[in-house]
Design brief:
The chain is of the alpha/beta class. It has helices spanning 3-13, 149-162, 181-189, 194-225, 237-244, 251-264, 282-295, 307-321, 379-386, 404-410, 439-451, 474-485, 499-510, 545-552, 575-583, 587-598, 623-639, 647-656; strands spanning 28-31, 46-61, 65-74, 81-86, 100-110, 113-117, 120-123, 137-140, 271-276, 299-303, 327-331, 348-352, 366-371, 389-398, 415-419, 429-435, 455-459, 490-493, 516-519, 532-537, 562-568.
Length: 665
Amino acid sequence: MALKKAEAILSALGLDRAEELLFHLPRRYEDRGCWIDPGTCAEGDALTVAGEIVRTKLSRWGARRCSFDAWLQPEGRLGEVRLSWFNMPYIKTNYPEGRRVIAHGTVKLTKGEVRLFHPEVEPWDDGEEARIHVDRIVPIYPLVEGVGQKALRRLVYETISDWKGFPDDPLVGTGAEVADRTWAFRQVHFPDSWETLKAARHRMVFEELFVLQTVLACRRRRSMEVVRRRSEVVGELVERWRAGLPFELTAAQVRVCAEIDADLGRARPMNRLLQGDVGSGKTAVAVHAMLRALERGEAAAFLAPTETLAQQQAGVLRRWLEPLGVRVELWTRTSKPGDAGLFAGVPTVHVGTHALLEEGVDLGRLGLAVIDEQHKFGVLQRGALLAKGEHPDLLVMTATPIPRTLCLAFYGDLDVSVLDGVPAGRGRVKTAVRTREQLPKVWEFMKGELAAGRQAFVVFPVIDVSEKADLKALGSGAEELKGIFGAEAVRILHGRMGSEEKEAVMADFRAGRFGVLAATSVIEVGVDVPNATLMVVENAERFGLAALHQLRGRVGRGAATSYCVLVMGEEGAGRERLEVMERTGDGFVVAEEDFRLRGPGDVLGTAQSGLPPLAVADLLRDGEVLAAAKQRAEVVVAADPELRSHPELRRRVERWLEGGALRAT
């Protein structure tokens, strides 16, 4: 390929060197080595055929329009195959009569004639060994504008042909029984067979997951090497708090509190993930942990993803903790207490958004950091909060239950606690899938709930109609609701509103000053209004199951039976998926099903996790490889914590470790 053309392709792909094409992997493959009789083909079949061009025809109409046809006589077969191209007159010179070629394309039957439109064609010579586009398993690459499939495939082939191989292999000396790395990359681009492709892919998947698990194993080992200086306990705040609660902690909450107490009794910092379903009582567990820090004369911080959630949590904590003499300070963009010296000598919990992370914010002697909805924060933000103390304990929480495979893949450096119970006094939530045509009955039901003194949420996928024309928008939807329930009964809430305005709306809703809150998914997390008993989600098929489960969790927080209605934008669109919500209220079951149907996506914030991205591995089907990679990584790190015997692996791992060093600091 000409140098200028190769450079143009690399530039379009954002690459500097041809060797970087090795990591631009095919997204799928086509078997173009499967030869069948053209006379047996049906419409839509893939056909690879070899033969001689016996006649051609160039037809023109108008100033610029034309077609070129070449009739191919298949080798050893009766009948002909017609190859057709439109508006490509120059192609006539490539395929004159008498030329022997191999063609591949999708069959179109025209009046009994087998026809291939814009087929892939290569010369057919008995001595030809390097066919790229046909007569083999052919890679299909992801493209960008301005780069054609054939040109990119040829450049990759030429690069592979000239390539000398990898000088280093991160799996050398690890005991992993996998194929050679250089061989695997050659085969994954241009496989000799489906069997070699499978072996090559296994090698690449294992390497990817092994590096990921080595990063996690090194993170975990490094955190275990840190010595946490712990003060003597100087109070009985937990016991006093528990005694004053108007409810009993669930068995699951008691179990997780005991796990946290065990962590806090060790010399190393706690590094724990708390995952619990909606309404399982994670906040109470976090309070237990924060009071343990306060009992040692340390401060605690609670980081929330939004101002609304931070304000709500501050209100809950003040009700629980101020009677114990604990001060709760709120840090947001609009609320900053000031010099932490003001809190000296007073047990203090700092609740806030990203404002907690700002340079110059002094949280005193920070002993515990709690991060709520941890997937909303990146690894750098987590590090910024921890840097405000001297190796403080860490409790990260999520109300999005994590499928087992994802937990294994991305949270191997954390101890994991699961809250699998629901506090007493919570009402049952019934879920139903409905169509737009059934909405009048839903609104009649809502009128009954409002007449009984209850409240309702109605969630829309977008704010304005212009965003997505086929989606129900908050603006027009709220006007419809006002027409049904009255203007005074309906208020709106969305992310573009100012923080003070949002908090005023939520305060009025919690106080029962209006009945219907029309909102976007901004209410997905943390909104706690026990009097709300009905959740209606418009265009529910556009939400993931995990998001729908979070929205459903905004009701059922009081003792009364609650209802969640999932309204489909069009009949049949995603109904099977939505019916999962009807069948179960268990968030862990919902999460597993969401994972099975949609894949991991970025539900867990993996893009900000500080971990290697997955380019090859598919966690839906590579669970066994993941388990094997994790086991092998733990063996390697245990035997050689600083990976001194594995320089290439060490280089790869240090790239992803915070601070870029294997040794604990």
